[in-house]
Design brief:
The complex is a heterodimer of chains A (203) and B (174). Chain A is built from eight helices and no strands. By secondary structure, chain A is mostly helical. The radius of gyration of chain A is 21 Å and the shape is flat. Chain A starts with 24 loop residues before the first helix and ends with a helix. Chain B has two domains: 130 residues, no CATH class; 40 residues. Chain B is built from seven helices and no strands. In chain B, α1 crosses α4. The N and C termini of chain B lie far apart (38 Å). The chains are: A mainly alpha (203), B mainly alpha (174). At the A-B interface, α1, α3, α4, α5 and α6 of A face α3, α4, α5, α6 and α7 of B.
Chain lengths: 203, 174
């Protein structure tokens, strides 16, 4: 907490001229509450529309950079982005306001849904609807997997690491932490510094 | 029996597994919440996860009902704090260090190495869920059609899941 206290740390593409005016914690909370209450079907596009386009609190380059940090750390993209954007705008207090804002509406909705589900979950129409919903959700997660694979798998070895992970968890019933340590370490060593020029020739 | 300490332990642990997305934690979530602690059944877990995809905000708010069932209002609050707290702190710290890490050559290696593993974890979660959600031709068709639609058209996924509910009522009601 020494020198970094007074300045806004996080990614800064030189002086962008964006988000220079000090944003209040209240504004952060309100904006993230709006995102938290309206972001149906995935938070990231809504974050971009709100923070980059509408409010111009961060620019597109910062957004992409923050998203790449969010994706390589544990935690959901939505909450990790809230932490990073809040931090950039208003430090720790900004992070707290942003994550509360983005979580609260969905949490309240699911609280109510949970109570309803417990009392009516065995109604025949509800169970049929839920079967359809669950099947659709499987398709949705698969589409996320395909989308991410197209974007971030580089070469056949990445594909091997992905398959190894699936086998370790689903077939060998290894715990996720153990899989992460073993397969993750292998993959990181494979992508060790200085090696990438040779490997990234392919698509 | 007081479930609060168990809820905190389980969800703080699951929190750290969500690399790449909430689905990455699904296999362990099934083991902990269904098999170990018996807070809910496997079909209930699948239902909550799927319905949770229709709610706005972070897509793992389905943890709230699990907390509520096991420990009331306090359980619901505790679960949210346990599930989002540890990763929030970690992200906050790494975010602050990020400028310094930029020159660290291994940073890129870690990002590139974790990408295939995190996708594998999502896929593993998806398979675990499919075992409980796909049975018979109707459900398989729904999943495949949703997959193809999302890959080829820009449609809001929450809307498709809602359509899944309608199709479920129409085709699966005995």
């Amino acid at each position: 907490m020494s020198e970094s206290d007074t300045k806004l740390v996080l990614p800064r593409g030189a002086d962008t001229g964006v988000g220079q005016a000090r944003v209040s914690v209240g504004e952060i909370l309100l904006e993230f509450l709006i995102i938290g209450a309206t972001s149906f079907g995935g938070v990231v596009p809504y974050l971009r529309g709100s923070l980059v386009t509408k409010r111009q609190w961060i620019d597109d380059k910062e957004f992409v950079e923050m998203l790449s940090i969010s994706q390589s750390l544990p935690g959901l993209n939505a909450t990790n982005m809230a932490i990073l954007v809040g931090e950039k705008l208003r430090g720790a207090l900004g992070s707290v306001a942003a994550i509360i804002g983005v979580c609260l509406p969905g949490a309240v909705i699911m609280y109510v849904v949970g109570i309803f589900y417990r009392s009516h979950g065995d109604h025949v129409w509800v169970t049929s609807a839920l079967k359809g919903v669950a099947a659709a959700a499987v398709g949705m997660v698969l589409s996320t997997v395909v989308g991410l694979s197209k974007k971030s798998l580089a070469g056949k070895f990445d594909f091997v690491f992905m398959v190894l992970t699936v086998i370790a968890v689903n077939r060998l019933h290894q715990s996720v932490p153990r899989t992460l340590v073993v397969v993750g370490l292998l993959a990181i060593l494979f992508h060790r510094p200085g090696k990438e020029q040779k490997e990234s020739v392919g698509p | 029996m007081n479930q609060i300490p168990a809820l905190v332990r389980a969800f703080a642990y699951l929190s750290l597994l969500t690399i790449g997305g909430g689905m990455a934690a699904f296999p362990e979530m099934k083991i902990l919440t269904v098999e170990v602690h018996k807070w809910l059944t496997f079909p209930q877990l699948i239902h909550l996860y799927s319905v949770g995809q229709m709610a706005p905000g972070p897509n793992m708010m389905m943890i709230v009902p699990i907390g509520e069932w096991a420990g009331g209002v306090l359980g619901a609050i505790v679960v949210v704090l346990a599930f989002f707290g540890p990763t929030a702190v970690l992200t906050f710290i790494v975010g602050r260090l990020w400028n310094r890490l930029e020159k660290w050559p291994w940073r890129r290696s870690i990002q590139q190495g974790l990408a295939p593993v995190s996708i594998g974890l999502l896929l593993a979660g998806c398979f675990t869920m499919a075992k409980g959600a796909i049975f018979g031709l109707e459900t398989a068709t729904i999943a495949v059609v949703v997959l193809l639609l999302l890959l080829n058209y820009k449609i809001n996924p929450a809307l498709l899941i809602l359509v899944g509910a309608v199709i479920g009522v129409l085709s699966l009601t005995p």
